[in-house]
Amino acid sequence: MREFGQLESAIMDVIWAGDRPFAVREVRERMTYRRPVAYTTVMTVMGILYGKGVLHREKHGRAWRYWPAEVKEEHDARLMAEALRSGGDHRQIIRRFLERVSDDELASLQDAVVSTGSRPAAC
């Protein structure tokens, strides 16, 4: 399961908010983080995120430009599925999860279940 640390999250927030690839400098300028972060630190973390498969990149002059490997919603949905499949009693995991969601979130879940209820069963 891929959860992000605080700096990784700050970087990914910038990347996901954009509609184009970003250079490290641009990400660093747009980041919201609790303290100043060196360019080389942002560059290193973005390289790590690329290595994890979270970011794609291409060379643009002397710099790399980065963009997300998946949209935020897809990333979050994959994490949720990985957590569900990580072991334990699925019914208990789902019950405990549902105990933690708000009424609005529960309504969204119910709508999603209804709208995907007609999909073919997995083999």
What are the key terms here?
single chain, 123 residues, mainly alpha, Arc Repressor Mutant, subunit A, 2 domains, 6 helices, 57% helix, elongated
Protein architecture, described:
The protein is mainly α. The chain folds into 2 domains: 6-68, Orthogonal Bundle (Arc Repressor Mutant, subunit A); 72-116, no CATH class. 57% of the residues lie in helices and 11% in strands. The protein is built from 6 helices and 3 strands, in the order H-E-H-H-E-E-H-H-H. The protein has helices at residues 6-17, 24-30, 39-51, 72-84, 90-100, 103-116; strands at 22-23, 55-60, 63-68. The protein has a 3-stranded antiparallel β-sheet. Helix 2 crosses helix 3 (39-51). The radius of gyration is 18 Å and the shape is elongated. The model has no long low-confidence stretch (mean pLDDT 91).
Give the topology.
Elements: H1 6-17, E1 22-23, H2 24-30, H3 39-51, E2 55-60, E3 63-68, H4 72-84, H5 90-100, H6 103-116
Antiparallel strand pairs: 1-3, 2-3
Helix pairs in contact: 2-3
Summary?
With 123 residues, the chain is mostly helical.
Estimated share of beta-strand residues: 5-15%
Average of pLDDT: 91
CATH class term of the largest domain: Mainly Alpha
The proportion of residues forming helix, as a percent range, comes to 55-70%
What oligomeric assembly is this protein in? single chain
Strand order of the largest sheet: 1-3-2
Radius of gyration over all CA atoms, rounded: 18 Å
Helix tally equals: 6
The secondary-structure class comes to mainly alpha
List the domain count as a whole number.
2
Distance between the termini: 24 Å
